[in-house]
Amino acid sequence: DTGVSQDPRHKITKRGQNVTFRCDPISEHNRLYWYRQTLGQGPEFLTYFQNEAQLEKSRLLSDRFSAERPKGSFSTLEIQRTEQGDSAMYLCASSPSGRANTGELFFGEGSRLTVL
Amino acid sequence: AQTVTQSQPEMSVQEAETVTLSCTYDTSESDYYLFWYKQPPSRQMILVIRQEAYKQQNATENRFSVNFQKAAKSFSLKISDSQLGDAAMYFCAYRSGYTGNQFYFGTGTSLTVIP
Predict the structure, then answer these.
(1) Mean pLDDT to the nearest integer, B72-81
(2) How close is the nearest chain A Cα to the Cα of B41, in Å?
(3) Is residue A104 within 8 Å of residue B37, measured between CB atoms?
(4) In this complex, how many residue pairs, one in chain A and one in chain B, have their CB atoms less than 8 Å apart?
(5) Which positions ≥6 away from A78 have C-beta within 8 Å?
(6) Confidence of residue A25 (pLDDT cuts 50, 70, 90)
(7) How far apart are CA A14 and CA A106, in angstroms?
(8) CA torsion, points A78, A109, A48, B61, in degrees to nearest 10?
(9) According to the model, what pLDDT value does residue A76 have?
(10) Quick one: which of A9, A10, A14, A37 has its CA closest to A115?
(11) Span A74-98, mean pLDDT?
(12) Is the pLDDT of residue A58 over 70?
């Protein structure tokens, strides 16, 4: 199956450490999104890429967060100097553009971050 | 910013019965899309059903249908003949037809299906 895959699925870290998550979208999808989901809440938009260009960033994406998609394929989301408030599920989603775009997002299973 | 409200944190339904999940949204836009996503425990979110705002006809996908009331900004999901596999979190989501890159999600409704 060539769905959206995320790695790692779970990450436990100590406050102040850096963490990096990886997302591999569906291969023919040129749009890639990162969302954050905390307990009891719906996903909140973090950032969006079209190919390698980061076109939108949420105010939620503080200076400690950086996302890249260097070759327009996989993407990484790095959180520096983690804080306990960063504990959440980080969801990656992808979608095609143009005529193939039905508006649907295809989600990965998420990367759960716990900051101690 | 658009807001999506799901006022039912939890719902339950007997197997084979029908349940309706509520969703309201707030927008000043005329072109938009609405979605219901399902998130089973420890599994990825998958699309259940979508509705384009310009379409008056309510979307239907097998046992899932919506009641789209554009003037009231209401978008409820009806699940007929509920099955055990329908147990999940259900999220209502809004996407602008203009900017289109951000989805706004509600806080979700946890659905329990009772055998």
Answers:
(1) 97
(2) 10
(3) no
(4) 54
(5) A18, A19, A20, A21, A65, A66, A67, A68
(6) very high
(7) 31
(8) -170
(9) 97
(10) A14
(11) 94
(12) yes
Comparing CB atoms, the residue among B42, B46, B103 nearest residue A45 is: B103
* A57 interaction partners in chain B (CB closer than 8 Å): none
Supply A28's token pair: 């023919």
Euclidean distance between CA atoms A104 and B100, whole angstroms: 11
3-state secondary structure B49-111: EEEECCCCCCCEECCEEEEEECCCCEEEEEECCCCHHHCEEEEEEEEECCCCCCEEECCCEEE
Of all helices (H) and strands (E), which one includes residue B19?
A: strand B19-21
* Residue A99's pLDDT band (cuts 50, 70, 90): low
- In 3-state terms, what secondary structure has residue A110? coil
Question: How many angstroms separate the CA atoms of A32 and A34, rounded?
Answer: 7
CB atoms within 10 A of CB A11: 18
d(CA B66, CA B61): 9
For residues B34, B92, A42 and A74, what is the CA-based torsion angle, rounded to 10 degrees?
Answer: -50
**Cα(B101)–Cα(A35) distance, integer angstroms:** 12
Q: How far is B46 from chain A (nearest CA, A)?
A: 7
